[in-house]
Every structure is written in C-alpha cells, then in structure tokens.
Design goal:
This protein is of the alpha+beta class and about 575 residues long. About 25% of the residues lie in helices and about 40% in strands. The strands form 9 sheets. Strands 11, 12, 14, 15 and 16 form a 5-stranded antiparallel beta sheet that branches. Strands 21, 23, 24, 25 and 26 form a 5-stranded antiparallel beta sheet that branches.
C-alpha cells in the first residue's frame, strides 16, 4: 500500500514537472501612442512551426529575437525558449495582441490574447545616450510631391528621400508599410543604384538618398490622400560619450521612420470648350489615321490604323471610333500600345488597328476622324482632324440594289405567298408501314449497340479514378495554371503576386517532375530538369524565378519587376513544356 502511494506521488510530480507551458508576456498593458511595447512568447519545451499573431494595429519595429536557456540545478534540468517582438501602436484605443501558436510533440499550443490600452502621446524622458533617441533626431523620411493641385489625369510625381545627419550611419532598411495609391494610376520607377547627395534639413547640413520615385495620374477629383511610407531602419547612432581620442561613441539602434501623408487637390477638367468627342486624353499629342491600302478587290482586307502619340495619359483613354460605310465588314479593333514611363510621364503611342473587308466593288469614303485632348499647360482643349480617306474596290460583285428602287416609275409588287401551294397533295400514312421499317430496326438495335460502349466507358472512368498518381499530377497542373492566372490578377500587389507565382512554379514542378514541395531543393530541381532534357539556360531561368519569389518576401520591388517576372514565368514554363 505504501509503495502504491509513493508511485502515485511520483507520477503526479512527474506530470506536473513535465507540463508544457506556452505564455505571452508584455512589458506593459497601457502605453502612449508614441511609446513601444515588448511582447515575449515563452515556452518551457522546444517546439516547431512557431506562428506569431498578425499584430493588427501595431507596427513591428523589432524582432523576432530568439533566446534559448538550458539549466541543470540539483539534478533537475530546465529549458526555456523565447520569441521577442518590439511593437509600436498605430493609433489610440483598445488593441489586442492575438494568439500565437507553437507545435510541441505533435500538439498545437496557443497563447491567450492580451488587450492593450493605447493612450495619447506621453512625455518621454529622452536619454541623450540612448541611441534610439539620437537616431530619431538624425534620420528623417520625406515625401516631395511635384504638384499639389493637378488636373484630373495630369501626371505628377512623388519622390521619397531619406535624410541622414553626417554623424549617423545607416546599415540597411526594410519597408513596413507602403502607400497603396488607391485613387491613382501609379508606377514606381526603380533606382538602379542609390546615390548619396548633399542637402539640408531644417537648415542643417544632411546627406540624403532617393529611395523611390513614383509617377501618379489622379483618377478622382477633390482632395486625395497620398499615404505614408514607413521604414524600419538599422543605424549606428552617436551618443554623448566619447572615446579616449575624443571621437563620439556610436551604438547600434533600430528605429521606424515615416513620411507624413500628403494631401493634393485634384481639379475637374473645364467644361467650357470641351469637345463632344473628348474621351479623356490629357497631355500633348499628335493624331493620325492611315489605311494600309486604298485600292483593292472585294473580299481582300485592309488595315485602318488610328494613332495618338506624344506625352500624357496614353494608357488611360480611348481613341475615337471611325464612322464607316455599312457595306464594309469591320472587325473588332486590336489595341497596340508602345509606352515608356519616366518622371516626365507616359511617352509613346496608343494605336487601334481595324481590319476592314469590302464585300462589293465601288468607292467608299471614310469621313475625317476628330481626336481631342486637354493640354494642362495651356489649360485648353485641342482638336486634331484627319483627312478623308477613299477606299476604291475595283473588282467584285456589284452592290445590291435597294428595296426602294423603281422600274418605269412604279414599284413591282412582290408576292409574299409565292411558295405556298393552294392545293395540298396529302397522302394517308399506313400505320403498319412503321413495323419492319429502317426507323423501327434502328430504334431496336441502337440500345444493344450502346451497351458495350457504356461498359467500355465505365471501365475507362474507373481506371481514371483509380489512377491516383495521374490524378495528382493533373491536379497539380491545373493548380499551376490557376495560380499563374491569380498572379496576373495581383500584379501590383507584391505579397499576393509572389505568393501565387511561387505556388504556380511549385505545382508546375509537381506535375512535370512528380516531386513534392518538401523535396524541391535547387540542386534536385536542376538535376531532374536536365535529366529530362531541359537546357542549362532554361533551368537557370526557372531557378532564378524561384529566387525572385523568395527575395520578394524580404525586399520591396516595383510593378515593372513584377510584370517582368510574370512574363518570364509564362515564357519559361512554356519553354520547359516544349523541351520535356
């Protein structure tokens, strides 16, 4: 009995000692909007697949930092592992830090949500030796807008500059929050390399770099908001302490800087003098209409090309529709755009090409086509008119005479009941003729013939369903095409685009090489592709696309780079299909 009691005590103690703990601990539950918060996710056993909460309402300014502690005291071992984050609240009010998850011994554990109260800004004791305080005073992010009162669809630019004092060094940054430009057509212009300029900030000498230049075309009138850009920056900030040589001592720090929101007021295009055929073109343009040929035979084709070229919102307006004679067969136009984007705006041409096929000989005039645009420099509308073009069809059938043509001054009456017989030759059908007829035997034999086909179809269908490997590969192929289409739809949204593109590439490999995601090392992919006959160049291009998807998780990219990656993915996938 005593032994049994001791065993119960031992197992109870062992169970209590080995109990898994996973908790969230915050440095404070009430803080000012200008303060920072530390949250630690602590566990007493090692786990896998740690998933932090989304930290909605906060900006992550530091972390995750991981620390592990192992101790052995009086014959007992202890273990602790901690993931730490530093958070900056975005606004005042009640915020919540959601549940984090960890997998320990095949069991998923979650922390309890924690409610945080964020008050207005509070006075902070600024330690002059604190590198964060020093860095915040010496690093500034500025957004410069070229024009604050543009017209609708007039090009403006916003340039983001990072100013750094001469005593502070920047060791790198990552983007926390990017402006979405929801009310604008936008395109970022990448900096090929960062160049350091000399300048001034608040009257003091600074150095600065241009981080990003973005071209904007406002798509709404009224007051529009250009959202802020926020960066997490690693710096070496000076302190008030000096070394034995009299030089200031610097310490590393991580800070968050934001470019303030910018407001612009977009003007309506003037109604006075607006042409009826105006379709929204804003800028400076030339306009022309050209026919590939003006003399041809019936059933031959010609191209009628309308071209607007110059500088302005070339991708954002429609070209006028030509008025063509009804006897010309006209197909839907093909839109062709050759546009380059710079800080000066869109430059190039916008074309629409109509294919026209005349049905009969004759002369067909195409009336002048008028194109109107608004010039924001002169604040006036301009209209360009093309010349009349005459299409001569030399050989072919004559045009059909109209219904109102006359003969000797009077119209010949046409009988509408010409083919209706006044007397019907009806013959009674003998019902006995059906039995023994071809129709009778056809209806009788056809079901018998369909029975073997149904059996064959059933076996094929059963074999198809039992083909687990084939079905898996077909499903992967279908998913690859689905995610590639999804990536195209998310051009401009970096996170969603590269996530879909990466899924498309992985499913493509599953379908073509019959490997799983867990086996997709670069060496294995390269070896399998080359064993199947794919060239070294194409293999390298495919691996480069996978690297682009990985790098995009940590570094900002532009819409142009996303478009190039999408086009390269479509081309490389098609090329590998051909080579396989």
């Amino acid at each position: 009995m005593k032994l049994k009691f001791l065993l119960i005590i031992f197992f109870a103690s062992f169970t209590a000692w080995s109990q898994v703990k996973f908790d969230a601990v915050v440095s404070k539950e009430t803080l000012g909007v200008n303060e920072r918060l530390r949250v630690d996710f602590e566990m007493n056993e090692d786990g896998d697949n740690f998933r932090p909460p989304s930290f909605q309402g906060f900006v992550v300014v530091g972390g995750p930092n991981q620390s592990i502690s192992k101790q052995w005291i009086n014959g007992k071992s202890s273990f602790s592992k901690t993931f730490s984050y530093f958070l900056q609240p975005k606004a005042t009010g009640k915020l919540q830090i959601g549940a984090a998850e960890i997998e320990i011994n095949n069991t998923v554990y979650k922390t309890l949500p924690i409610e945080i109260t964020v008050t207005g800004a509070v006075d902070l004791d600024r330690d002059p030796n604190d590198p964060i305080n020093a860095a915040e005073d010496n690093v500034h992010l500025v957004a410069e807008v070229s024009k604050t009162n543009p017209y609708l669809n007039e090009a403006i630019t916003v340039v983001y500059k990072l100013y750094v004092s001469r005593e502070t060094a920047v060791n790198g940054w990552n983007e926390i929050e990017a402006p979405k430009f929801a009310d604008f057509w936008s395109q970022s212009i990448d900096e090929k390399q960062f160049k350091v300029y000399d300048g001034s900030y608040n009257g003091k000498p600074y150095r600065y770099v241009i981080l990003r230049r973005t071209l904007l075309y406002p798509q709404k009138t009224g007051e529009l908001n250009i959202e802020s850009l926020s960066l997490n920056i690693n710096v070496e900030a000076p302190t008030n302490r000096r070394d034995i040589f009299g030089m200031r001592i610097t310490r590393p720090a991580q800070i968050t800087v934001s470019a303030p929101n910018k407001k612009i007021k977009v003007k309506e295009l003037p109604e006075a003098g607006k042409p009826e055929n105006f379709t929204g073109a804003v800028g400076k343009f030339d306009f022309s209409v050209q026919a590939s040929k003006t003399k041809l035979d019936a059933q031959d084709a010609l191209d009628l090309t309308l071209t607007a070229k110059g500088n302005g919102n070339l991708k954002l307006f429609n070209l006028p529709k030509p008025t063509l004679p009804g006897s010309l067969e006209v197909y839907e136009p093909e839109n062709l755009q050759d546009v380059s984007v710079s800080l000066a705006g869109m430059t190039g041409k916008n074309e629409e090409r109509y294919t026209i096929v005349p049905q009969s000989k004759g002369a067909y005039p195409i009336p002048p086509i008028r194109f109107s645009y608004f010039d924001p420099t002169t604040e006036r509308y301009n209209t360009i008119s093309s010349d009349e073009i005459v299409i001569t069809v030399e050989n072919g059938p004559d045009a059909l005479a109209s219904n109102d043509s006359t003969n000797n001054g009077s119209q010949k009456p046409v009988s509408q009941f010409k083919y209706i017989k006044s007397q019907a030759d009806l013959v009674a059908q003998n019902k006995d003729d059906f039995f023994g007829s071809k129709l009778f035997w056809g209806l009788l034999i056809t079901p018998l013939l369909l029975i073997p086909l149904a059996i064959l179809f059933g076996r094929k269908r059963e074999a198809y369903q039992n083909d687990v490997k084939g079905n898996r590969l077909r499903k992967a192929d279908k998913l690859a095409r689905k995610y590639l289409s999804e990536a195209k739809n998310n051009l401009g949204n970096q996170k969603a685009f590269y996530l879909a593109l990466e899924k498309s590439l992985h499913n493509f490999l599953k379908a073509r090489l019959n490997i799983q995601t867990s086996d997709m090392s670069k060496e294995r992919i390269s070896r399998l592709l080359q064993e199947r006959g794919v060239t070294v160049t194409t293999t390298a291009e495919f691996l480069k696309l996978l690297e682009s998807c990985e790098f995009a998780r940590y570094t900002p990219t532009s819409s142009v780079a996303m478009q190039q990656d999408y086009e390269n993915a479509s081309r490389v996938i098609s090329e590998i299909d051909k080579q396989l």
